[in-house]
UniProtKB/TrEMBL annotation, chain A:
PANTHER family: ABC TRANSPORTER ATP-BINDING PROTEIN, BRANCHED-CHAIN AMINO ACID TRANSPORT SYSTEM PERMEASE PROTEIN LIVH. It is found in: Cell membrane. It is a multi-pass membrane protein. It holds the Pfam family BPD_transp_2. This is Amino acid/amide ABC transporter membrane protein 1, HAAT family. GO terms for cellular component: plasma membrane. It comes from Pseudovibrio denitrificans.
UniProtKB/TrEMBL annotation, chain B:
CDD domains: ABC_TM1139_LivF_branched (cd03224). InterPro entries: AAA+_ATPase (IPR003593), ABC_transporter-like_ATP-bd (IPR003439), ABC_transporter-like_CS (IPR017871), BCAA_Transport_ATP-bd_LivF (IPR052156), P-loop_NTPase (IPR027417). GO terms for molecular function: ATP binding; ATP hydrolysis activity; branched-chain amino acid transmembrane transporter activity. SMART domains: AAA (SM00382). Transmembrane segments: none annotated. Belongs to the ABC transporter superfamily. Keywords: Amino-acid transport, ATP-binding, Nucleotide-binding, Transport. PANTHER family: ABC TRANSPORTER ATP-BINDING PROTEIN, HIGH-AFFINITY BRANCHED-CHAIN AMINO ACID TRANSPORT ATP-BINDING PROTEIN LIVF. Pfam families: ABC_tran. Gene3D superfamilies: P-loop containing nucleotide triphosphate hydrolases (3.40.50.300). One of its GO terms (biological process) is L-amino acid transport. The keyword Ribosomal protein does not apply. It comes from Pseudovibrio denitrificans. This is Amino acid/amide ABC transporter ATP-binding protein 2, HAAT family.
UniProtKB/TrEMBL annotation, chain C:
GO terms for molecular function: branched-chain amino acid transmembrane transporter activity. It comes from Pseudovibrio denitrificans. The lineage of its organism: Bacteria, Pseudomonadati, Pseudomonadota, Alphaproteobacteria, Hyphomicrobiales. Its main location: membrane. InterPro entries: ABC_transp_permease, LivM-like. This is Amino acid/amide ABC transporter membrane protein 2, HAAT family. Keywords: Cell membrane, Membrane, Transmembrane, Transmembrane helix. It is a multi-pass membrane protein. Signal peptide: none annotated. The chain crosses the membrane at residues 15-34, 68-87, 94-116, 122-140, 181-202, 233-255, 267-294, 325-341.
Length: 342, 241, 351
C-alpha cells in the first residue's frame, strides 16, 4: 500500500472474473445452438433465427430509451408504451398520405416514404416526450412510488388522446412493396422486412455506442448514470441533459413504434402497452440502465419467443418470463448491473 | 490576503428533519488556505455541500466574489469557478482517468502544459491515463479527484478530507500538491481532521462543533498555542485518534 | 363495540363518518332501496371492489410497494372457485374448496414474486409484476382446454343462490326474496368481514411496522425489523385477500373470464380507485370504489349531454365523448397524485 505511489500498480482481475464478466456475451450463441438442436431442421431454424433477431432488434430500439432514461435519472417511465403507440400512429399517418410512394415498385420511393414516416414519428414523440417530462415526470424525480403512478396515469391519458385524435379503431396498412415478400437463403425463407429491421437495429446499437464513448454528451450521460451530483458539481446542468435524453428516449420509442407497426401491419392505441411487457422483461434481464445488457436481453427474448412460438406456441411469452427468472437467479440485478456511486 | 473571497453569514441548513448547520459564519480570504476542523458530525461536510448548492441553505447568506450565491443551482455555482472535491471523491469509475479529466475541463479540451504539471504532482495518473478509474487504488482515486478540480484554474477549491484513510506517502504527495497550489495564490477551503496536514498548509483555521463555528483565527496562532490546541483538539479530534 | 369492530381506526371526521355510514346503509339495503338487476349488480361489484381495492391499498398505501399483479391474484381466486364449480358441480363444498385453493395458490405466487424482486427496488417489483401478470393473462387466454380461453367459464352455483330459488312467495317491500338476494347478502357480509379483517391488519402492530417501513425503510431496518420479510408478508396477505375477492366475483357473476378478472384495464381501475379515494387509508378504498363505479356510468351520461350540446365543435366534442370518460379520470388521477396525495378521504378529513 505504502509503495503504491512509487511503483504504481493496478490490480489485474483474475481470469475467472474476466470470464464471469464476459459470460453474458455467450448467451445469445448458446441459445441459438439450443434452438438448433431443439428444432432440428436447419432451414426452419434459420427462418426463426432471423425472425427472432428482427424482433429482438425492434424491442431493443424501444427498450434502449427506457433503460438509458432509468440509468441517467432513476426514472422508469411506465408511460413509455404510449410513445410507441403514438409513434406508430404518427408514422402511419404519413404513410397513409404517401400511399402512392408505398405502392410504387421503386425502392427509393418506398424507402423515402418509410424514412419520412420515421422522421415525423420521432419528431412527434420527441416533442410529446418534452411535454411529458415537463408536465408529468419533472415534479416527481426521486420519488419512485409517485413516479410509477403518475407515469401510469400518463399512459392512460395518452392512450385516450390517441383515441381522440385518430379514432377508436385499429389502422391496417400494408408494408411498402419493396419490403414485402422474402429472400430465400440456404433453403430458408427470410422476410425482407426482417432484414431491414435487423439492419436498423444494428446501426442504432453501433451509433449509440459511438455517441456514448466518443462524444462529450455521451461522456456526460455515462458520468451522469454513475453520479449525477458530481456532474452538477463540475458545472453541467444535468436537468437539461435529463430532458434531452428523455426526449431522445421517447423518439426512439416512436421509431420502434413505426417499425413494430409495419411489422404487424396493424396498429392500435394499446399496441405500445402490449409490447412493453417484452420491453420490461428485456430491461430487467439486461440490468436496469445498461445498453449492452439491454441489447443482449432483447436478442435473447426475440430468439426465445420465436423458438418457443414454433415448438410450443402457447408458452411463447411465459418462456421469456422463465428466462427472466433464470437470469435473475444467476445475477439478481440483471446481466450488466449498473454500478451507482451512491 | 486582504479581502474575503467567500463569506458565510449565519447559514442554516436542514436535511430532512435534522437541523445540521445552525448559523455558520465563516470567511475564506482571497489567495489563502482556510482549514475547517471539527469532529465527525460537526457539520463540516454539510458546510461544503451547502456552499456548492447540493444542500439548500434555509437561512443566511453565502457571498462569493461579492455575489449572493445561496439560491443558485449547483451547476451555476460551479460555473463561478468553484471546484469541489467531495468526501467520497465522486470519481466516475466506469470512465477512464482521461475521460474523468476531460469532463472536469469545461472548455472541452485539456491544456497540455497544465496536464504535465498535474502529472508531476500525481505521477500515477499518467501511468493509468487510459485505465478505468474504478481500477485505481483509494489514494490514486483521491489524486484524480484533486487533479480534476485543478485541471483548469479555478478561483476557489473546496476539498473535503483529502487524506482520509490514505497512507503516509500519499498524504505527503497531497501536502506537496496543496503547497504548490498555495504558492500559486489559489484560494482553498479545506476540510481536514488530520492536524499535521492542516498545519502544513493552512493560513487560517476555523473549528466547528454542533453546526456552528466555535473558534476561528490564524493557523500560526493556533499552532503556537498548546493550551488552545489541547482545548480544541479535545473538541475536534479526540473522537477518532 | 363500534370502535372495536373498526380496530380503533375511526374515520376522524364527521363528514367522512356520514359518507361512510351512507355507503354502509346504501349497500346493506341496496336490494330494497335500488330495485332492479342492474343496480343490484352495481352494488355487488362495489362490495367486491371495496375488498379488492382495500387489499391493494395494504400494499400500495401502507407498505409503499407498487404491484401490477393484483388482478392476477384476483383472477386466481376467481378461476379457483370457477374451476371447482365446473369440475365438481354446483355444490357448497366446491365453492369452499375452490376458494381455499385459489387463495393458497395466490399466496404461493405472491411469495415467489416477492422472493425474486422485493430485495432490489420498488421499480423492479413494479416492472416484474407487470410482466408476470401480463404473461399470466396470455397463458390463461390460451389454455382454452382448461380455462375456456378468451370466452371464459360459465357454471352453475348451488340452487339456493340462484334467482330460481324463492325464499317466500310474497314480495317484501316490493322485492322478491329469491336466491339472488341471498347471494347478494353472502357477497355483502363476506366483503364486510374481509374489510374489517383488513382494517384490523393495518391497525395491528404488524400494520404499524409496515407504515414505519414505508416512511423510512433504512431506519426500520436499523431498528431491527426485517424489511424484506415484512414486505413479503404484506404482499402475500394482500394477494390472498385479492383472491378471496375474486372468489366472490366468481360466485356473483356465475361466470369467470379474462376480461372480468385479469385484464390490465381492471388493474388501472384499481389504481384509480386507490389513488382517488386516498392511499394509506382503508376508508379511501371504500370511497374510491364507490365513487369510481358510480362515476363510470354517471360521468358517461354527463359527458353524453355535454357532447350533444357541443356537437358542432369537432375536436371538443371528441374530447367529451362518453367513451372518453377514462381520459378525464386519468387526468383527475394525475392531479390527485400531485395535489391530493391523500385523496378524497384526506380532503374530507381536512388534512
Amino acid at each position: 500500500m505504502s509503495d503504491s505511489l512509487i511503483k504504481p500498480r493496478i490490480e489485474r482481475p483474475p481470469l475467472s472474473e474476466v470470464i464471469e464478466a464476459k459470460a453474458p456475451l455467450f448467451l445469445v450463441p448458446v441459445l441459438m445452438l439450443i434452438g438448433l438442436l431443439a428444432i432440428g431442421s436447419g432451414s426452419t431454424w434459420l427462418t426463426l433465427t432471423a425472425a427472432g433477431l428482427a424482433m429482438g432488434m425492434m424491442i431493443f430500439i424501444m427498450a434502449s430509451g427506457l433503460t438509458v432514461i432509468f440509468g441517467l435519472m432513476d426514472v422508469i417511465n411506465f408511460g413509455h408504451g404510449a410513445f410507441i403507440s403514438l409513434g406508430a400512429f404518427a408514422g402511419f399517418t404519413i404513410l397513409g398520405l404517401l400511399g402512392g410512394w408505398i405502392e410504387s415498385p421503386s425502392i427509393a420511393l418506398n424507402l423515402g416514404a418509410v424514412l419520412l414516416a420515421v422522421a415525423f414519428a420521432m419528431l412527434v414523440t420527441g416533442l410529446a416526450g418534452y411535454g411529458f417530462e415537463r408536465l408529468i415526470v419533472k415534479a416527481v424525480y426521486g420519488q419512485h412510488l409517485k413516479q410509477i403512478l403518475v407515469t401510469m396515469g400518463g399512459l392512460v391519458v395518452t392512450q385516450q388522446l390517441i383515441y381522440v385524435i385518430w379514432g377508436p379503431d385499429e389502422i391496417v396498412l400494408a408494408r411498402p412493396t419493396a419490403f414485402q415478400g422474402s429472400f430465400v437463403v440456404l433453403g430458408a425463407a427470410i422476410e425482407k422486412y426482417r432484414v431491414l429491421a435487423i439492419a436498423i437495429g444494428l446501426a442504432l446499437f453501433v451509433a449509440m455506442r459511438l455517441v456514448l464513448s466518443r462524444t462529450r454528451i455521451g461522456l456526460l450521460v455515462r458520468a451522469g448514470v454513475q453520479n449525477g451530483e458530481m456532474v452538477e458539481a463540475l458545472g453541467y446542468p444535468i436537468q437539461k441533459l435529463f430532458l434531452a435524453v428523455f426526449m431522445v428516449g421517447c423518439a426512439l420509442a416512436g421509431l420502434g413504434g413505426v417499425m413494430w407497426g409495419l411489422y404487424q401491419e396493424t396498429i392500435t392505441a394499446h399496441m405500445g402497452a402490449e409490447v412493453m411487457i417484452s420491453v420490461f422483461i428485456v430491461v430487467i434481464i439486461g440490468g436496469l440502465g445498461s445498453i449492452e445488457g439491454c441489447f443482449i436481453g432483447a436478442m435473447l427474448v426475440g430468439l426465445l419467443t420465436n423458438y418457443t412460438g414454433f415448438l410450443i406456441p402457447k408458452l411463447a411469452l411465459v418462456s421469456t418470463i422463465l428466462l427472466m427468472g433464470a437470469v435473475l437467479m444467476w445475477r439478481p440485478q440483471g446481466l450488466y448491473p449498473v454500478v451507482k456511486a451512491h | 490576503m486582504s479581502d474575503a473571497l467567500l463569506t458565510l453569514k449565519g447559514v442554516h441548513t436542514h436535511i430532512g428533519p435534522y437541523h445540521i448547520l445552525q448559523g455558520v459564519d465563516l470567511v475564506v480570504p482571497r489567495g489563502g488556505v482556510a482549514v475547517l476542523l471539527g469532529r465527525n458530525g460537526a457539520g463540516k461536510t454539510t458546510t461544503l455541500r451547502t456552499i456548492m448548492g447540493l444542500w439548500q441553505a434555509s437561512q443566511g447568506a453565502i457571498l462569493f466574489d461579492n455575489a449572493e450565491i445561496q439560491k443558485e443551482t449547483t451547476p451555476a455555482i460551479a460555473q463561478r469557478e468553484i471546484a469541489f472535491v467531495p468526501e467520497d471523491m465522486g470519481i466516475f469509475t466506469d470512465l477512464t482517468v482521461h475521460e474523468n479529466m476531460l469532463l472536469a475541463a469545461r472548455s472541452g479540451a485539456i491544456d497540455k502544459e497544465r496536464l504535465n504539471w498535474i502529472f508531476g504532482l500525481f505521477p500515477p495518473l499518467k501511468t493509468f491515463w487510459q485505465s478505468a478509474a474504478g481500477n485505481l487504488s483509494g489514494g490514486q482515486k483521491q489524486m484524480l479527484a484533486v487533479a480534476r478540480a485543478i485541471i483548469e484554474p479555478r478561483k476557489l477549491l473546496l476539498i473535503d478530507e483529502p487524506t482520509k484513510g490514505l497512507a503516509p506517502a500519499i498524504i505527503n504527495a497531497m501536502i506537496a500538491a496543496l503547497r504548490e497550489l498555495k504558492e500559486m495564490q489559489t484560494t482553498i477551503l479545506l476540510v481536514e481532521q488530520n492536524f499535521s496536514m492542516a498545519r502544513a498548509v493552512g493560513d487560517t483555521v476555523a473549528v466547528m462543533d454542533d453546526g456552528q463555528i466555535v473558534y476561528s483565527g490564524e493557523m500560526a496562532e493556533l499552532a503556537d498555542d498548546a493550551e488552545l490546541q489541547e482545548k480544541l483538539m479535545g473538541l475536534s479530534l479526540e473522537a477518532h485518534q | 363495540m363500534m370502535m372495536k369492530l373498526l380496530s380503533g381506526d375511526s374515520p376522524r371526521s364527521k363528514m367522512l363518518s356520514a359518507v361512510l355510514l351512507l355507503i354502509l346503509f346504501g349497500l346493506m339495503f341496496a336490494p330494497f332501496l335500488f330495485p332492479g338487476t342492474r343496480s343490484l349488480d352495481t352494488a355487488a361489484r362495489i362490495c367486491i371492489f371495496i375488498v379488492l381495492v382495500a387489499s391493494y391499498d395494504l400494499l400500495l398505501g401502507y407498505t409503499g410497494v407498487v404491484s401490477f399483479a393484483h388482478t392476477m391474484f384476483f383472477g386466481i381466486g376467481a378461476y379457483g372457485t370457477a374451476l371447482a364449480l365446473v369440475n365438481m358441480g354446483a355444490s357448497y363444498s366446491a365453492i369452499v374448496l375452490g376458494t381455499v385453493c385459489g387463495a393458497l395458490v395466490a399466496g404461493a405466487f405472491a411469495f415467489v414474486i416477492a422472493l425474486f424482486s422485493l430485495r432490489v427496488k420498488a421499480i423492479f417489483f413494479a416492472m416484474m409484476t407487470l410482466a408476470v401478470a401480463s404473461a399470466f393473462l396470455v397463458l390463461i387466454s390460451q389454455l382454452s382446454g382448461i380455462t375456456g380461453g378468451e370466452d371464459g367459464l360459465s357454471y352453475r352455483i348451488p340452487r339456493e343462490m340462484t334467482p330460481a330459488f324463492k325464499l317466500i312467495k310474497e314480495k317484501v317491500l316490493g322485492v322478491r326474496l329469491n336466491g339472488k338476494l341471498i347471494t347478494y347478502y353472502v357477497v355483502f357480509f363476506s366483503s364486510l368481514c374481509l374489510f374489517l379483517v383488513l382494517l384490523r391488519m393495518v391497525n395491528s402492530p404488524f400494520g404499524r411496522v409496515l407504515q414505519a417501513i414505508r416512511e423510512n425503510a433504512f431506519r426500520a431496518e436499523a431498528i431491527g425489523y426485517k424489511v424484506v420479510r415484512y414486505r413479503s408478508v404484506a404482499t402475500i396477505l394482500s394477494a390472498v385477500m385479492a383472491a378471496l375477492a375474486g372468489s366472490l366475483m366468481a360466485i356473483w357473476l356465475r361466470y369467470t373470464g379474462p376480461a372480468t378478472t385479469l385484464s390490465m384495464d381492471i388493474m388501472v381501475d384499481i389504481l384509480l380507485m386507490v389513488v382517488i379515494g386516498g392511499m394509506g387509508s382503508m376508508y379511501g378504498a371504500v370511497i374510491g370504489a364507490v365513487l369510481f363505479l358510480l362515476t363510470q356510468s354517471y360521468l358517461q351520461d354527463l359527458l353524453g349531454i355535454l357532447q350533444e350540446s357541443l356537437g358542432s365543435l369537432p375536436v371538443v366534442s371528441d374530447v367529451v365523448s362518453p367513451e372518453r370518460w377514462l381520459l378525464w379520470l386519468g387526468i383527475l388521477f394525475i392531479c390527485s397524485i400531485y395535489w391530493f396525495p391523500k385523496g378524497v378521504v384526506g380532503r374530507l378529513r381536512g388534512t
